[in-house]
Amino acid sequence: MPLDCAGKVLDLSRPAVMGVLNVTPDSFSDGGRYFQLAEALRRAEVMVEEGAALVDVGGESTRPGAPPVSVQEELDRVLPVVERLARELPVPISVDTSKPEIIREAARAGAGLINDVRALRLPGALEAAAASGLPVCLMHMRGEPATMQQEPVYADVVAEVYAFLAERVAVCERASISRERILVDPGFGFGKTLDHNLRLLRHLNRFTDLAAGILVGMSRKSMIGALLNAPVDERLSGGLAAAVIAFWQGASIIRAHDVRETVQALCVCAAARAVA
Fold this sequence. Notes:
By secondary structure, the chain is of the alpha/beta class. It has helices at residues 37-49, 71-88, 100-109, 125-132, 157-174, 194-202, 222-228, 236-248, 259-274; strands spanning 2-5, 8-11, 16-22, 54-58, 93-96, 113-116, 136-139, 182-185, 213-217, 253-256.
């Protein structure tokens, strides 16, 4: 099913890779490598050349323990990048934010998707997203980035995450954001232990009836590091395995740092799934 992202169409009938572009000085995955505008633009161009179907721009780190960023600082980081990329690239530009001010301004700057780790729960965020007319991605997170990994507990992680996302989808529908414009993300690594993450991955197909598609992000995350006993820059093979499993289990969009390799892995997986 096609997803209209401010006039740029995202085809959800085949696997789509979302390229990660962190315009922050403290990202866990790239250490602020793309904090300057020129570097960010070039990185986005490279990811599109490698097969990214959309680019996700984030101006506030949500790694465990990350400090908050002011509205003005996030605007200063994100808007110049979103504006240039929306104008110059053929793919939709997603903005990774929770703040209503960023949602509004990014939409005006040409963003095509709102990707919110807080599922539009900040005051004013739901209204800003609805007014933008853009599709949204609703993610599950237990707690806040500063504290989310402090002994998270669930009686049934799959059921509880499903219930949370179902409730947020219903809230969006009441705000005139139709289900056809909604993606859901179980939030791997956001207030979950390794066991919680693996259970969500194993049962990801449980979430396919909630919205237009499922978005997942496991690239380079600590769950991969824990399984492989590997630092951030040595987690590619594990991340590719997780991406393939997620797609096979029903994910539509895979958020990844290593775009070319993820596109290639999903190409093989999609070909196998297409065989009658």
